[in-house]
Write the structure tokens for this entry.
Amino acid sequence: MKKILILATLLAFLSGGILPLFSEALSGREILRRMQRNEIYGSMRSEGSWIIRDRFGTREKTFKVYSLGTEKTLIVFTNPEEEGQKILRVGNEIYLYFPDAEEVIRIEGSAMRDSVLGSDFSYEDMTGQKDLLDSYDAILEGEDTIEGKSCYKLRLKAKRPDVVYPMEELWVDKKNYALRRAYYYALSGRKIKELDIGEVRMIKGRAVPVHFVMRDLLKKNSQTEFIISKIEIDVPVDEKLFSLEELSW
Amino acid sequence: MKRILPLVLMIFIFGRLFGEVTTTASLTALSGVIDTDSDVGVVSYLYGSVSFKSKGNRNVRANLQIDADISDRVSLDVSRAFVKVRFPLFRVTLGKTRVSWGEGFFFNAGDVIFEGVELQSDISGNSSGGLSEGLRRETAWLADVYIPLGAFSFLELTGLPFPKETIETASGSLAASSLAIAIMPLDFGRIAGRLVTKLLGVKLEGGALYESDGVTPYASIQGHFFLDWNASARLPIDLGNGDFTAGQPLFSVGAFGMWRAGGRSRLSFRLESRLLPDSLWEEQDTALPGKDPGYALFLYGELSLARSDSVNYYLRSLVSPIDRSALIFTGIDWNIYQGLNLMFQASAQVGDSNDIWGWERFGDLALLTGFRFKY
């Protein structure tokens, strides 16, 4: 009888009585892990652009991205200024291809944090190399509402000195764990950037941000808009794409 | 000029009719003042380039590119004209293009095909889309077979029918005129092969260039240990005299690092050296301006500060430690509008009158400003 009681209590816990309480008590780390899980695909093909707007006008760069698992990414730039330039990441290595020079350059270490084509994004950012859990401690600070969406509010504090932002604040959608807003701070505590997610698309059960805007608060009237115009997840992607042969083709 | 224009029009029209073509053009216009030793002169020039690239076919690529250097005269060059075809196990490139062998940004002892960068190179990078492309502008007529041996290994064989001297003469001249030589003696040609692979995180490359009077084997390595580093070496062997010690070994080594410099700023540095150990280690009294009398050691240094997503400050220097002279180049590159870069540049020579670079010489100080527009 005692055993049945324990079993019944356990079932009650698991079948819904206690489980929602567990989900309500998620740690900051777990929320961050679930947010990042949205960004992991078996394979992916996408096309998009980023648009830099400042007081002088607008500059647009367009690209195609192919990825296989978490280890392989190929980015091909398609705008006239950078047409044919490619970035290949396989594991911890990044290769750049410059068609005018017919040259492949392999970069490692600090060079991976360099800006891609003068944007706000680094090679690490663009190729999915960065894992926030490795770099930050995540603290759940409470809940908030962003654009009508109920969100967890996280504060991220850097574990390492070599990260770009020593502190970040993130708002993560409670429903689908999509990032909705982010603030980035300098070591002095001054807010230097704001990221707003304009549109999140549900694709094969994952919440994928497809339109977001980064504002640089150190520059007046400056922002980078990132638009994914076409995205396919878990579709066949040829493994040969992630080779030096394809890179230099 | 009359020969080139109909060719360009024909390719443009036929390209539009029968296939997908991507057309890009770039113009770099610069103007400024230069110290001509006895006086101050005004200098103005323009580099232009039009490129027609095929697209849409996954297994065939073609490119025709025409470059122009325009000042008070116009010099045209068909810098690229090639077809590249991919088969299941290999790919073939035929025509005028370039291949990048060896490791090194400025000095590259492994580049046995284009000999690496010479001291007369334009460290401003103005002659093309930037320093990287500017240093690697040279192309050659070649037949190239590329055989992949896995994701990061390959074998490449290249045949160059025309001798090196022809390539150098053709650079900047009308190479695609009716005067272009189509039949060359077999002895004038060169063949080269290389194998590239990766072992324990280090990129390894080895190969050789064979020509009628000699063979030049080379090796290059590239890796990361605190900094990105590379090293290359070559040893020309004179087969004509059977003297395996006649050629001078040439070495190049380089390092590259990058750091965050607060906010979005990034500071990067590069240091490279070229070493000919059997060459001259003592200063010569008869060095001609900008010409290497055969010194054993040269250094290239570069410091760059990218302050934002569109502004880059840089300082580059080519140094001859043996005669203690240097060419220093500094500037600002500002990507102000789509495709448009605004440039401010200054260069100075440091050294005595009998050094490679020297103060009180022609061009010892120059100030330039201009635009680069790619569209």
